[in-house]
From TrEMBL:
Keywords of the record: Signal
Xref: Pfam families: RcpC, SAF
Domain of life: Bacteria
Organism in which the protein naturally occurs: Methyloceanibacter marginalis
Lineage: Bacteria, Pseudomonadati, Pseudomonadota, Alphaproteobacteria, Hyphomicrobiales
Segments forming domain SAF: 43-111
Stretch forming the signal peptide: 1-19
Protein name in the entry: SAF domain-containing protein
Length: 262
């Protein structure tokens, strides 16, 4: 082989090796990552430091300040800039609704003791709270819990001709249970709440009907299914009303009346 060809071949091999090395270096080089820091405006918002139950009396250490994006601060939230002493100012208030840990605090969901009792605080406008005695056997075996909805059934003796016959009437329908005894809510996964009284949320007219029913006979609470226990204005049965708009059913010879629209 001629000397010139050897030189050309050597140069070509060297160039190829050099190109391969350069290509390998480019492929194996880690890509450069550019870190862009974006500063987001934030402010301190008052949040629950732990879970707070309905009717709980709160203390200053039940709250904490937590950074919150300014864009997410909605009306009603308490900011450190506007109310720096809010934890101390709200200490002793009662929760009108439950809070979960980390949930922003709103003053509308808290009430000072001086402004009214706990029950008055959780009652909607225009509604009344009235209690009625219950026993386990007249309250679905103790399985009725606060916030359940029930029918109130009155059992009493009605004079029919010269005889008295036991009669049952649904005097109230689809009413909310506010409390059983002193329990305002179902806590710690309890499935049974026992007590000697049930406090019901009623309209003023319903409260009058319940008060009259208590003096006439024994009351029982009938638990409604969740599927038909939605809030709504349902008719209230009028005690002892004539049969207009009602259905009379004989069970084993005992008359029972369930009232419809009055």
């Amino acid at each position: 082989m001629k000397k010139a060809r050897v030189v050309v071949l050597a140069i070509a091999i060297t160039a190829a090796l050099g190109a391969a090395w350069i290509a390998s270096a480019i492929v194996s080089r880690a890509p450069e990552v550019q870190q862009v820091e974006k500063t987001v405006g934030a402010t301190d918002v008052l949040v629950a430091n732990k879970d707070i139950g309905l009717g709980d009396s709160v203390r200053a250490d039940d709250f904490k300040w937590q950074q919150w994006p300014i864009e997410g601060v909605t009306p009603g939230l308490i900011t450190k800039e506007s109310q720096p002493d809010a934890p101390a100012d709200l200490s002793g208030a009662v929760a009108r609704a439950p809070f979960i840990s980390g949930e922003p605090i709103k003053e509308q969901k808290l009430i000072k003791i001086s402004e009214g009792g706990v029950m008055a605080a959780i009652l909607p406008r225009g509604m009344r709270a009235i209690s009625t005695p219950i026993r386990e056997e007249t309250a679905a075996g103790g399985f009725i819990l606060p916030n359940d909805r029930v029918d109130v059934i009155l059992s009493y003796n009605m004079k029919i001709g010269s005889k008295e016959q036991p009669v049952s009437e649904a005097v109230l329908r689809n009413v909310r249970v506010l409390a059983i005894g002193q329990a305002l809510e179902n806590t710690d996964g309890e499935k049974v709440v026992t007590g000697k009284t049930a406090t019901l949320e009623l309209t003023p007219r319903q409260a009058e009907v319940l008060s009259l029913a208590q003096s006439m006979g024994e009351l029982s609470l009938s638990l409604r299914s969740l599927s038909d226990a939605l809030p709504g204005d349902e008719p209230t049965a009028k005690i002892g009303e004539a049969n207009q708009g009602s259905v009379k059913v004989l069970k084993y010879g005992v008359p029972s009346r369930t009232f419809g629209i009055n």
